[in-house]
């Protein structure tokens, strides 16, 4: 089941004395986090309006409405920020990494079920799908040479394995 709210980042500290916070983005870029007029805080997904946002040294610097000083900003330290899925329109063929966890992984050549995606690693070069639950564990690079089809709505991905993978 697709989650209504998706993790977007974590407030790591204050920034200055006027109530701004530093946010470590967990999205493709800090610019992505900065484009939302409303973010949601913590496990209750409490909505808070963004007054302004910018990027500084690969972090999002955000000023929320109602947070006017460093003490208010400090009270938000270590909070997880979320975005609402309904606020995002992804391009055709794109998906959220959170939607991949739990998808069945099928060998495109044999049709064999290899397991499910247990985790998505995000090293600099390309994402890597960690597949568990089958005869053995796989780490599959998320590149077109290996991942032939991703069907989030259908609940599966089809992969082409090479010897030694």
Can you walk through the features of this model?
The chain has a six-stranded antiparallel beta barrel. Strands 10-9-8-7-12-11 form a six-stranded mixed beta sheet, with no helix packed on it. The chain contains two helices and twelve strands. The model has no long low-confidence stretch (mean pLDDT 93). By secondary structure, the chain is mainly β. It folds into two domains: 5-87, RimM (Elongation Factor Tu (Ef-tu), domain 3, Beta Barrel), CATH 2.40.30.60; 97-159, SH3 type barrels. The longest helix has 5 residues, at 30-34. It has helices spanning 30-34, 70-74, and strands at 5-15, 20-25, 38-41, 46-56, 59-64, 80-84, 104-107, 113-121, 128-132, 138-141, 147-151, 156-159.
Structural class: mainly beta
Distance between the termini: 30 Å
Strand coverage percent = 35-45%
Mean of pLDDT: 93
| Corresponding CATH superfamily of the largest domain | RimM
| CATH fold description of the largest domain | Elongation Factor Tu (Ef-tu), domain 3
Spatial ordering of strands, largest sheet: 1-2-5-4-3-6
Count of strand segments: 12
What's the number of domains? 2
CATH class annotation of the largest domain: Mainly Beta
Q: What's the story with the biggest beta sheet?
A: 6 strands, antiparallel, barrel
Rg from C-alpha positions? 19 Å
């Amino acid at each position: 089941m697709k989650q209504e709210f998706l993790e977007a980042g974590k407030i790591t500290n204050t920034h200055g004395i006027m109530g701004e916070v530093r946010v470590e983005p967990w999205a493709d870029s800090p610019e992505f986090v900065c484009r939302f007029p409303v973010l949601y805080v913590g496990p209750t997904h409490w909505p808070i309006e963004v007054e302004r946002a910018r990027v500084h040294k690969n972090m999002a610097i955000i000023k929320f409405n109602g947070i006017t000083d460093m003490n208010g900003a400090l009270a938000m330290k270590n909070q997880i920020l979320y975005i609402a899925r309904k606020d995002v329109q992804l391009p055709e063929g794109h998906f959220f990494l959170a939607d991949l966890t739990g998808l069945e992984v099928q060998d495109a050549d044999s049709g064999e079920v290899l397991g499910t995606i247990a985790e998505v690693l995000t090293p600099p070069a390309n994402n890597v799908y960690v597949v568990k639950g089958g005869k053995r564990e796989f780490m599959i690079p998320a590149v077109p040479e290996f991942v032939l089809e991703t069907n989030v709505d259908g609940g599966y991905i089809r992969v082409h394995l090479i010897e030694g993978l």
